[in-house]
Amino acid sequence: MIPHSAAGIALLGIINRESVLGQWASSIGISFIDQPAGIAIAMAFVSLPFLYNASRDAFEAQTGLYEKQL
Predict the structure, then answer these.
(1) Tens digit of each residue's pLDDT (9 = 90 or more) over 3-16
(2) How many domains does the chain have?
(3) How many CB atoms lie within 10 A of CB 32?
(4) Is the dihedral of CA 14, 20, 23, 29 positive or negative?
(5) What is residue 17's three-state secondary structure?
(6) Which of 31, 48, 57, 65 qualifies as a FRET site for 42, CA 20 to 30 Å off?
(7) Contact 53, 59 (CB under 8 A)
(8) C-alpha to C-alpha distance for 29 and 23, rounded to whole angstroms
(9) Helix pair 4-15, 36-69: axis angle to 10 deg
(10) What is the pLDDT of residues 15-62, one digit of tens each?
(11) DSSP 32
(12) In angstroms, how far is the first alpha carbon of the chain from the final one?
C-alpha cells in the first residue's frame, strides 16, 4: 500500500492544471483542484485498494463456507 500523503501528491501531479490531463479537463470545463470531483477522485484512488482486498477476502470466505457445506 502507498501512504495516503504519497498517493495524494502523485494524484495531484497527474491532474494539476499544468498536466496534460488537467489541461484537457480544463478545456472541456472540468476542474479537479479544490472541487468536489477532485476530492472524490482522490478519495477513491486511496480507498479502492482497501475495498478490493476486503471484497476479495469476503468472497473467498463465502466460497470456503459453501464448499464446507457440500
Answers:
(1) 777 877 888 888 78
(2) 1
(3) 23
(4) negative
(5) coil
(6) 57
(7) no
(8) 10
(9) 130
(10) 787 888 888 888 888 777 888 877 888 888 888 888 898 988 888 887
(11) -
(12) 37
